[in-house]
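A favour, since you know our structure tokens better than I do. It will help me judge whether the discrete encoding reads sensibly. The space below this message is yours for that.
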Amino acid sequence: MPLSRRTFLGTAAAAAALSKVARAQGQTQGPAGLPVAISSSNGLQAVGRAFEMMQKGTDPLDAAIAGVNIVEDDPEDMTVGYGGIPNQDGVVQLDASVFHGPTGRAGAVASLEGVKNPTKVAKLVMETTDHVLLVGAGARWFADVNGFARENLLTEKARKVWLYWRQNLSANDKWLEPPLDKLDPDVKHFIDLFGWDDLRKPTTGGTIHLSAVDSRGDIGGCTSTSGLFFKMPGRVGDSPIIGAGCFTDNDVGSAGSTGRGEANILVSGGHLAVEFMRQGKHPKDACVEVLRRIAKTTREKRLLEADGRPAFGITFYAVNKKGQYGAASMYDRSKTGRPAQFAIADPRGARKEDCAALFERRPS
């Protein structure tokens, strides 16, 4: 739903026409102007909020964090913040990073418990310490002394999903598998979204990344996640790693990712995408090149399909200083058939567009 130019978009026909033009032109013909905010597909409201704030003169990082906070606060989004999927012990541990282009400073937290907005804590790490990354008990202590209350982030829905996963984890433990005819509706919906194989094996997770450039050309980026579903306690992915899950250079642009963090860490994908943009590549093409690098360097058989292609999903999002934007996913759609998309907001409005893709998903 467009969040600006409401008078011009006064009819459904006009809105549909504009959306069609945006999808066709957005990643190839340059920006419609600044500000611009880009994020993962779960960030439609987030980019809308960031865009509106930047229009009013808000710093791009503050706008990005405010947008991401919407998703962190939403218990229905089970990939970040409050309601995020817990680790294998049933504990929600969150990771986040922020990067402020104008000052060149960054902050991050990892394995943080009891704070639904880890991006806010990461920003305080950036602003009030000489450090970049705080983890675990240290991150929790830092949140305590800065007045963050200890909250229970495990929602009833997430608890039921975790319990079902635990009950079905092994046929040799003491848990009894619940009958399928009594499957809880919340659990069934989760399985329909992510697929039983990915629920049974801790290989899938969710994240939100948001990069923003304001009308002055200043840039900010942030990433937030609850990490891999049912991960090992203390596992840290790419989201809080500066240069992997998020990287910003105020002279060039910003980039970040969602998906398999271990694959991104090995190539420093956020930094690599920005470097490709520095060389003159369009943000979309920069994202594709990072994916190509990951596919080339993934060699472990357990991480490959029978045809040698990566057996995991990962998506990159990027915007340059001029406001050109793009996103690319390893596959054009998920294993459950959902198309790979991203969220974008600019003077044309807030909307979703299809990602570019390195590979097409072959029929199973």
The chain has a mean pLDDT of 89.
